[in-house]
Amino acid sequence: AFGEESFSIFNNQELINQASYWQRSGTGFPAPFYLNNIVLLVFVKFLSFLQLPLALIQPAFYFIVILSGLIGLFYFQKEILDKVDKSTYFVSCVFYLFNLYGMTQIWGRFLYAHMLLWAYLPLFLLLWLKWLKENRLKILFAFMVTNLIFSVTYAQPAFILTLAIPAALFGVLELWKARYKIRDVFNLILKSLAFCLSWFVSSSWWLY
Q1: What whole-number distance in Å separates Cα of residue 206 and Cα of residue 49?
Q2: Is 132 exposed, middle or buried (0-12, 13-18, 19+ CB in 10 A)?
Q3: Which residues are CB-contacts of 44 (< 8 A; sequence separation ≥ 6)?
């Protein structure tokens, strides 16, 4: 399949007005996860407000998504890999962008939830690990902001698990490293609960 979801530029304000639980097409129908798209629609509206040519708005969106995904992956690798050549980071980023699944099932299908998940996954895991290892509230705040920005990801509810499962695996690994220190284990559990709570808070506007 190709081009399963259109990039809406024309009359964007009307699309923003329609971003709700109940869609007004025909006799109307419920679409509980369409509300997540309002972040993307507002972003496109902002680019239009800057009076960018319509032909540049779409590539500008793709450029920002791809760049954020690759930057997030670069720093995520630096967080989990020790003493590796910098070329390893570059090769991983190239593979992440041009692997067969990504080219056919993400960019080829033109689905925005998939694109935003692709970009957000490494950043999400980076912030998760940073929060577990460092006791800094600004990391939690950064997560809440990015979770709002990339909320289009949750237009596909299954992607919640796509983010949660690897995060849980990294969390278990950190617990295993601290297994002989009860205080550290307790702190990790509290941090995990705080992270989950911050996700619910930053996602409360589209949760029902």
Answers
A1: 25
A2: buried
A3: 7, 8, 9, 12, 57, 61
The C-alpha atoms of residue 21 and residue 36 are separated, in whole angstroms, by 10
The pLDDT of residue 28 is above 90:
no
Please identify which residue in the block is written with the tokens 């800094």. Answer: 136
What distances in angstroms separate CA 143 from CA 41, 67, 130, 131, one per listed residue? 21, 18, 10, 9
Is residue 208 within 8 A of residue 21, CB to CB? The reply is yes
Non-local CB neighbours of 111 within 8 Å, separated by 6+ positions: 4, 5
Q: How far apart are CA 140 and CA 199, in angstroms?
A: 9
User: What CA–CA distance (Å, rounded) separates 102 from 195?
Assistant: 28
Closest by CA position to 147, among listed 61, 78, 206, 107:
206
Q: How far apart are CA 34 and CA 19, in angstroms?
A: 6
Let me know how long the chain is: 208
Mapping DSSP to helix (H, G, I), strand (E, B) and coil, where does residue 188 land?
helix
Three-state DSSP class for residue 19: coil
Q: Which of 120, 132, 134, 126 is nearest to 203 (CA)?
A: 120
Q: What is the pLDDT of residues 100-156, one digit of tens each?
A: 998 888 888 888 889 999 999 999 999 999 999 998 999 999 999 999 999 989 888
Which residues lie below 8 Å from residue 81, measured CB to CB, with a gap of 6+? 88
The model's confidence at residue 63, banded by pLDDT at 50, 70 and 90, is very high
